[in-house]
Amino acid sequence: MKIVVSFKVVPDDQDIQASGDGSLDFSKAHKIVSTYDLNAMEAAAQLAAANEGSSVVGVTVGDAKIDDSKLKKNVLARGVDELFMTADDACADMDAHATAAALADLVAKVGDYDLILCGDGSADNYAQQVDVQLAAKLGLPVVNGATKIEAGDGFVTVERTLEDVVETVEVPLPAVVSVTPDAATPRIPGMKDILAAGKKPMNVAAAEGAYANAIEVVDCKAPEQADRKLEIIDASEDGAIEKFAAAIKAAL
Question: Quick one: which of 83, 113, 134, 240 is 20 to 30 A from 173 by CA?
Answer without folding.
Answer: 83
